[in-house]
Amino acid sequence: MQTVESKPRKAKVAIGCDHAGFEMKEELKKFLLEAGYEYKDFGTHNSESTDYPIYGQAVAEAVASGECDRGIVICGTGIGISIAANKVPGVRAGACYNTDMARISREHNDTNVLALGARITAIPFAIDIVRVWLETEFSHGERHTRRIKEITEIENVKRET
Ligand code: RB5
Prior knowledge:
This protein has helices spanning 22-35, 52-64, 79-85, 99-107, 123-135, 142-155, and strands at 12-17, 38-41, 70-75, 93-95, 113-117. It has 161 residues and is of the alpha/beta class. The mean pLDDT is 96. The chain binds D-ribose. D-ribose binds at residues 18, 20, 52, 75-77, 79-80.
């Protein structure tokens, strides 16, 4: 019997940034295209000053809704935009500054959004970080799965308004 080998579909990536991350976003889009990833660009579309929560939320909602499989967010440090993205239930955003962080954030934390700091990390290193992050799978280790479930339970705590 003949078998047809089908390659696994590559992740569809939501990408967004503030003004500080604009140049890095444009370079990462070139990398994503060359590497065969589909992406959706949530802005910003130039280097004029703007507010990172807008783009952190937009990318995070695209991932949380299932419209995109993974998200990449960029601001000056990766901190502000990761904080914003993490406010969307279901999102686990991690700011990564080297490939070890990127790999471990996938294996242990199952990050579904990667945050980068355009004023911290040079573009060639950011491309390496993105490559490793996209290629690394969650380990499915028992303790890691348990801890992620505990994180999700924090989202579900009923709070006084
Ligand atoms: C914008 O100047 C800068 O504050 C922002 O890109 C980011 O670094 C915030 O965390």
